[in-house]
Write a structure and sequence with these properties.
It is built from 1 helix and 82 strands. With about 950 residues, it is mainly beta.
Length: about 950
């Protein structure tokens, strides 16, 4: 037979049964007239039975009506099942409850429905023997819709029901109690509905459906509800359907005792079943549920335990799957507190009155952390309002944890500290952790952590809320151990505000780390506002054979650090590892600020290369400590390498405005191998001040490319590519408007032993002042790099220097203006020089306007060696030199200090007032 429908239209009534008289026999009531029920004695094999025949046939339905109905102990009562009948309905119109102490059955395949408003009681000897489904209810009538009903209180003839409609039900004042063993056939349904519905015996429907429904619902100790089968678990509804939805009757209170057992397993092949325990007011659950997947294949099932207003949960649930995906345990009341010990209600569960007032304080819910820790199922907490985790959660291997709250999720300081966890929090072993809150998720001295010590991956951690608050000693971590070959999980935090702001000395940590052969996970944070300060570390690293992960921060505004604290964002391989470094990407729609000792690091500590750092926002500010002249800069953005064979990583910055000040550092360096490339693009302004520095240093320096609307370097700031043992990298500066260097600032490409890099500068106007320099220098190696300086308008040097210097040949200098003048003032210079045996570089000046030199300024090429001095080529509208300014070329013999002139070519100088023109590098008296 088809399963009995679970869609039961119900209007719950609420009064208790007051000791009704019990029917001891079967008495037809005559309300069906000539179609009344008939009884006679028959045989079923060798067993004597009482057989019920007659009744009113309406299509596939057969109706019986009784004054009293019961089955005595040791007796057997069977309904006859005429041809074509699929459903048999029996009502009791008298005043006594029905007590079933023997066997009740059907001689055929029909479903059996029993209705007695006074109650239905199944004693210890009660049994069912039928092939179809069974339902017993204390409703007043079976409702079929369209005004059709079969009423036990106001009995009428059988309705003209010619089709197989399933009845809607109302439970009445009577109770339904089972102390026997009630079984139906595989795939069928077993339903008991009463004002109080209590089970102390066995209810079994292999692979089918069992419902125990009513105003008050109880599974007492010794109770078993079983829908397990070889091919899959069935459905169990205790007190209501999933989340109280639909028209299935809902309990006011539901109780499941500590020795009660609900089974919905797939024994061989198939999925575990569905178990729902529900009450509109309060549920107390202390029992056991098993909804496991099949031994040879299949997934675990779903278990929901909820009291809409209040829940007390200290049960044990298993939805494991040996060869499939584990199932879920869902706890979803209004508010949830996860506690070490239940603090209300009775502690002596063996003597509890299951329907006494549990004193749950309104909508308060307590869930035992121990019960969660013992679960073999993925655990889901859903609260309409808030979830407070007050005791450590340490999940079994492979079990995932999800918490969803309409309000806040809070994890406060715990009085219990566990080895390996150290504080209150949630710890999973190879399981995922997911928290979702409509308001806040806050961690104060708490940990959210997923680990792996095997070949499996550690779990992902997903945190979604309006605000995420990481307080003092708060940690979010996904780790794999040294012995593991699995990967660390990914961490994702999404909120309107992400506030990583611990208040104490312990700081805070968000980390995904590989210590074995697997990969570190990624860390993603997305918010409208993201704040990190007071000693926070964001860490995706490896000290194993796998690679570090990616860190991505996305927000409208990102504030990292403040003036006095130290913070770290790191995606790197660590000492002892062989894996690759990770990457860091920070993107904001408004502003990114990195302050104090906040470091962003994607470097390398092994033979692999450093990672990629990308920062993009309209406004980007990097600020270290003000008023400090220390040569150890505050590393604010770093893709550095420290004494390894790996090369530095790449840095890309995109902004409208970029400020680097107060010892802040953009650094792509390697002490033994190659520096990384740096690319910076700002459509408006770039300002470097108070020792703000952009540097790529290495055995071979990396390339630096800067594009900006305007570029201003002040107070010993610099853009530097430095080669320590090989060549320096190229420096390419392209500025649409003004380029200004003041206070000893530098744009240089220098090498200790190799070739200096090429420096190319293009701008609208160029000002080099106050001992600032654009240059390329090699000290002991090959030639200095060439300089190409070009301005759309004018170039001004005021105590400024454009210079190439080398022991093995100076680089060439080309200075060009498209429209304006070249002015050298106050001991400024455009100089190439060489101290070794190679030739000095040439100086070429292609100036659309005038060249004006004053205040002992110098345009020169000189070789303090046996090499040739470079040529000076000047093409300008006029050349005006005054106040001991010079244009000079010379070769100086270092043994005799004799000098000889080199080539000097000046064109387009008609009308020029030449105050002083030298062809010697160092004339007497100069």
């Amino acid at each position: 037979m088809a399963r009995l429908s679970w869609i039961l239209g119900v209007s719950l009534l609420g009064a208790a049964l007051a000791d009704p008289a019990l029917a001891q026999s079967i008495v037809p009531d005559g309300t069906l007239g000539p179609e009344q029920s008939l009884l006679h004695t028959g045989m079923l094999g060798s067993i004597e039975i009482e057989q019920i025949e007659g009744g009113a046939t309406r299509g596939p339905n057969l109706f019986h009506s009784f004054e009293a109905f019961g089955v005595e102990a040791g007796k057997a009562v069977y309904f006859a099942n005429p041809m074509g009948i699929g459903r048999i309905f029996g009502r009791v119109t008298g005043s006594a409850a029905s007590r079933i102490d023997g066997t009740l059955g059907v001689l055929g395949q029909a479903d059996l429905f029993l209705l007695n408003p006074n109650g239905v009681l199944f004693g210890p000897g009660a049994r069912l023997d039928l092939s179809g489904s069974f339902l017993a209810s204390t409703a007043e009538s079976f409702e079929f819709g369209g005004g059709l009903q079969f009423n036990a209180v106001n009995p009428q003839p059988a309705p003209l029901l010619n089709i197989a409609l399933r009845p809607g039900l109302q439970h009445g004042l009577g109770d339904v109690v089972n102390e026997g063993e009630l079984r139906v056939s595989t795939g069928e349904s077993l339903t008991l509905i009463g004002n109080t519905a209590r089970n102390q015996g066995l209810l079994a429907a292999p692979g089918g459906n069992i419902a125990l429904l009513g105003n008050l619902v109880s599974l007492k100790d010794g109770s078993t509800v079983d829908v397990s089968s070889l091919s899959g678990g069935g459905q169990v509804f205790i007190g209501g359907a999933f989340q109280g939805q639909g028209i299935t009757p809902r309990a006011t209170r539901t109780f499941v005792g500590p020795e009660a057992m609900i089974k919905a397993d797939a024994i061989s092949q198939g999925n575990g079943g569905e178990v729902i325990v529900w009450a509109d007011q309060d549920t107390r659950f202390y029992g056991q549920v098993s909804a496991q997947g099949g031994a040879t294949g299949g997934n675990g099932g779903l278990v929901e335990v909820s009291g809409k207003d209040a829940l007390q949960y200290d049960g044990r649930v298993n939805t494991a799957a040996a060869n499939g995906i584990g199932g879920r345990l869902l706890l979803d009341p209004t508010n949830i507190e996860v506690v070490g010990f239940l603090q209300f209600g009775t502690l002596d569960l063996s003597t509890v009155d299951e329907f006494s007032d549990p004193n749950l304080n309104g909508d308060r819910t307590q869930v035992s952390a121990l019960a969660i820790n013992q679960s073999n199922s993925d655990v889901v907490l859903q609260a309409t309002n808030d979830i407070d985790i007050q005791s450590p959660i340490m999940l079994r291997r492979g079990v995932s944890f999800t918490a969803e709250a309409g309000g806040s999720i809070r994890m406060g300081e715990s009085l219990t500290f566990l080895p390996g966890l150290g504080a209150n929090g949630i710890q999973a072993e190879e399981g995922n952790i997911s928290l979702t809150a409509g308001a806040d998720i806050s961690l104060e001295k708490s940990v959210i952590r997923s680990d792996s010590s095997s070949a499996q991956n550690s779990g992902d951690i997903n945190l979604l809320s309006n605000r995420f608050i990481l307080g003092d000693a708060g940690q979010v971590a996904s780790l794999v151990s040294i012995s593991s070959t699995g990967n660390a999980g990914n961490i994702r935090i999404e909120a309107n505000e992400i506030l990583l702001m611990p208040t104490g000395p312990a700081g805070g940590l968000i980390m995904t780390k590989n210590r074995g052969a697997g990969q570190a996970g990624s860390i993603d944070m997305e918010a409208e506002r993201l704040v990190l300060r007071n000693g926070v570390e964001i860490n995706s690293t490896t000290n194993g054979t796998g690679d570090a992960g990616k860190i991505r921060l996305m927000a409208n505004s990102v504030l990292l650090g403040d003036e006095f604290d130290s913070n770290l964002i790191i995606a790197a391989n660590l000492p002892g590892s062989t894996g690759k470094s990770g990457s860091v990407q920070i993107t904001a729609t408004e502003r990114v600020s990195l302050l104090g000792e906040t470091s962003i690091y994607a470097g390398t500590f092994n033979n692999q290369n450093g990672g990629l750092i990308e920062v993009g926002a309209p406004e980007i500010e990097l600020s270290g400590f003000p008023n400090r002249q220390s040569s150890i800069s505050t590393e604010v953005i770093a893709a550095d390498t420290l004494n390894t064979a790996g090369s530095a990583g790449q840095i890309k910055i995109s902004a409208e405005r970029l400020t680097v000040r107060d010892n802040a550092l953009i650094n792509a360096s390697s002490r033994l191998t190659n520096g990384g490339d740096i690319e910076i693009n700002a459509t408006e302004d770039i300002i470097l001040s108070n020792q703000g520095l952009i540097v790529s240093l290495g055995n071979q320096g990396g390339n630096i490319r800067v594009e900006a609307g305007s570029l201003n370097l002040a107070n010993r700031s610099g853009i530097q590519s430095v080669g320590l043992g090989s060549d320096a990298g190229d420096v390419n500066i392209q500025v649409q408007r003004g380029l200004r260097l003041t206070g000893g600032s530098q744009i240089v490409s220098n090498s200790l032993e190799g070739t200096g890099g090429q420096v190319s500068v293009t701008a609208g106007n160029i000002d080099i002042r106050e001992a600032s320099i654009i240059g390329s220098t090699t000290l002991t190696g090959d030639r200095a790099g060439s300089l190409n300086i070009s301005a759309q308008e004018s170039i001004t040097l005021d105590q400024g220097l454009i210079q190439t210097t080398s022991f093995s040949g100076g680089g060439n200098i080309v200075v060009t203006t498209q429209n304006g003048d070249l002015r050298l003032q106050q001991s400024s210079g455009i100089v190439t020089s060489s101290i070794g045996e190679s030739d000095t570089g040439n100086v070429t000046l292609e100036i659309a306007g005038d060249i004006v030199g004053s205040g002992i300024s110098l345009i020169s090429t000189s070789s303090f060696s046996t090499g040739a001095s470079g040529a000076i080529n000047i093409d300008a509208r006029s050349l005006n030199l005054s106040q001991a300014s010079q244009v000079a070329t010379a070769v100086i013999d270092p043994s005799t200090f004799d000098f000889s002139p080199a080539l000097l070519d000046i064109t387009e100088t008609l009308g020029t007032e030449v105050a002083q023109l030298f062809e010697e590098a160092f004339a007497p008296g100069c």
